[in-house]
Each structure stands twice: as C-alpha cells, then as structure tokens.
Amino acid sequence: MSPRYDTLFYDGSCPLCAKEVETLRTLQRGNLIFADIHQQWSANADIPSHEALLRRLHMKTWTGEWVVGLPANVRAWSHTRFGFLFRPLLWPGIYPVARFIYERWADRRYEKKYACAIGT
Length: 120
Description:
One of its GO terms (molecular function) is protein-disulfide reductase activity. This protein is α+β, with helices and mostly antiparallel strands. The chain is built from six helices and four strands; from the N terminus they run βαβααββααα. It has helices at about 15-25, 35-40, 50-55, 70-75, 85, 95-110; strands at about 5-10, 30-35, 60, 65-70.
C-alpha cells in the first residue's frame, strides 16, 4: 500500500501563511506535503489557476480530490495532534458562520493586495 500524502498549496509570500505552514511543518505527523504556489504552480490541467490558489487555500488529497478554503485548513490541521480543535468548524451549526468569516478574510486579503497577495 502506498503512502497517503496530502499536499497543501500555500502562498509563500504571505507572512501569515508562512507562519502557519511553519507551525504545521513542526507539528505534522509526516503525511503532509507543502507546496509554495509561487514555486510549484505551473499551467497544468490538474492544478487550479494561480489566481484561484491565491484566493483560497487549496489541498490535493492523497486520493486526488481537491479541498478548498476552510475545509482545506481543517484537513491540514488534522495532520497534527491538534486536529480535533479544528473539526468543530465543519459542524453544521458552526460551518456556515466559520466559512463566511474565512471567505471574507480571504477575499479582503486578496482584493486589498496585502503584502501577502498577488502584485506586491
């Protein structure tokens, strides 16, 4: 049976993203691969556009499925011993609010071209 690795695509030029990835690298159990979208992205039918990768966190699971946004973040943290703290964000009563907050933050991050967004 082959190893089951998920790949997290992140914005390596974003200080907040880089800090979270640094923490995940330290805490993960070895089944999570990190791909800086500024170094790993190429025009490939199997990978979302560079803009899509900048707008939302993306993870490609070991089964080939794409997980995007808040669920990608929760799945990334599931590779650590702290995953249980993030799982409630996907519960039916919490998910709509958590997703709304995540998406508003992600949109603002992208549209305002913070130091971690495209064009800076």
